[in-house]
Automatic annotation (TrEMBL):
Pathway membership: Amino-acid biosynthesis; L-serine biosynthesis; L-serine from 3-phospho-D-glycerate: step 1/3
SUPFAM superfamilies: ACT-like (SSF55021), Formate/glycerate dehydrogenase catalytic domain-like (SSF52283), NAD(P)-binding Rossmann-fold domains (SSF51735), Serine metabolism enzymes domain (SSF143548)
Residue stretches making up the ACT domain: 450-522
Full protein name: D-3-phosphoglycerate dehydrogenase
Reaction catalysis annotation: (2R)-3-phosphoglycerate + NAD(+) = 3-phosphooxypyruvate + NADH + H(+); (R)-2-hydroxyglutarate + NAD(+) = 2-oxoglutarate + NADH + H(+)
Native species: Lentisphaera araneosa HTCC2155
Keyword Oxidoreductase: yes
Amino acid sequence: MSQKVLIPTKLSTAAKDILEGNGFTVVQEAGVDLVELAKAHPDTEGMIVRSEKLTPEVIDLFPNLKAVVRAGAGYNTIDIQYARSKDITVMNTPGANSNAVAEEAVGMMISCARFFIEGDRSTRAGEWKKAQLQGFELTGKTVGIAGFGNIGQLLAKRLSGFEVDILVYDPFVSEDKLAEFGAKNVSLEELFAGSDFISLHMPATKETANVISTDLLTSMKDGAVLVNCARYEILDEAALREVKKTKTIYYANDVYPKDAAGDKTIADVSDIMLPHLGASSIEANTNAAVMAANQVSNYLGKGISVFAVNKVLPDGLSPEYQELAYSVAKVAKAWMGDSQPYEINISLYGELKQFDKFLVPAIVAGASANDKVVNAEKASEILESHGIKLDVREVDDSKNYGESITVDLIKSTNGKLERLSVRGTVAEGNIIISRIDDFDKLYYAADGFSTVFIYNDRPGVLADITQILASESINIEDLRSPHNTEKKRSIAIVKTNSEVSNEVINKINSKIDSEAAFQVSL
Ligand SMILES: NC(=O)C1=CN([C@@H]2O[C@H](COP(=O)(O)OP(=O)(O)OC[C@H]3O[C@@H](n4cnc5c(N)ncnc54)[C@H](O)[C@@H]3O)[C@@H](O)[C@H]2O)C=CC1
Ligand SMILES: O=C(O)C(=O)COP(=O)(O)O
């Protein structure tokens, strides 16, 4: 039965399309209470949200939930610790909506400095406030950016045409990053006192709660502009109200305690108020939808967690290695065909051996991959229930395999055991299959469609394979065919531009009489 993903938010249909294409059942209903949705879909295993609040009470309504992707950056609306305690992995989609927010911030700055909102309102009302609404320019001024992550950096880049000086406050930013943008690292106090425009782009955390205080606001230059497209909780609203009584500063706001209609307490001190529009561009929505759908699909289907915020991959383990784990196992499983392994042996070489708990689920998912979708979390249980032994072996690092993974599926046919062994590594960010059976040094990039034949070495076999594929109008993109002269065996790995049907594989097989013939798509 296919796994269910709930999208209780307004999100590009790209997410639903990707997930359905990968075999998931998708329910997308925006604006419906999560409690109601939980009643109707208690079997939900994955969820994609935007600013919807996931409290412990809401999380408890979804007993089968395994993965939540916040299609966006800020995840302060999700109780990630509670989710962790329920073994739910929460991810976000960094960078997906950054440009939309950076552009919004530039728009806010100029709208404030040139009085666009008051100009519009008063002119509509029949007034003519040309003399009163003389503004000031952004060009050549000093802009302070608090929080120099994805959005902060893009903002600096977008502002470069305005020839501004940039001050940055971010306790975690590197000197290299600052140099790249020609920005100066300062304290938050120096940033507030020295900037004509200030834009907030740090996350809402315990450390940033109410950090924009009376002292900072009082220190701002007269007539300076403060833009908050980050989070409501960062600014001390009462302090802003007090300071604004005696000082002319402008405040542009996009964020609230909750996203909902109704009166807003911040209204009297805001010069511009938008209904949390930062990420609301077509482009950002599509980017976030595509990223989120792939992340849910990879996690539930392959055990690969990318951008997890409550189960962060340990230092030294990049997500490519989880992908490698899945891919190596999937190649071995494709070789094995429909029968079930008697045993799975896993060898994690080099630094990878310490990361078994992050890699084994992906291997188990790959080794169980008959359909497009498998349930990575449940795969171990399934293996156990089928009596399949899983063995993570002691490895011999003197073999110099670097950071690589070997998956051996042990096949049992009428009591006779056969080892189907595949090894891979990551090189320059690419997933590389380095060995199948005893054919090593393959160095073959595992993506797209590959058909593999193992056969007795003799002249003319490659010609037969390529000729049959050509007659089916299938184009070959790569072909590796090392020989084992001692055993007089060869392997041909043929990467094609499209899927090769079973019928065509059988046709080739009967012509070349191979001992193994299988296709794998990665
Ligand atoms: N208005 C809107 O629609 C949107 C609002 N946001 C908000 O903007 C925030 C930033 O988004 P991104 O740039 O994508 O995230 P990011 O994670 O790429 O960047 C955040 C930056 O803040 C820095 N930071 C962390 N703690 C800090 C502190 N105490 N003081 C100063 N800097 C600190 C981090 O080092 C990092 O460089 C999000 O957390 C979210 O709350 C994000 C997207 C849309
Ligand atoms: O990505 C973020 O942090 C945002 O604030 C965007 O929120 P939204 O997806 O528009 O509800």
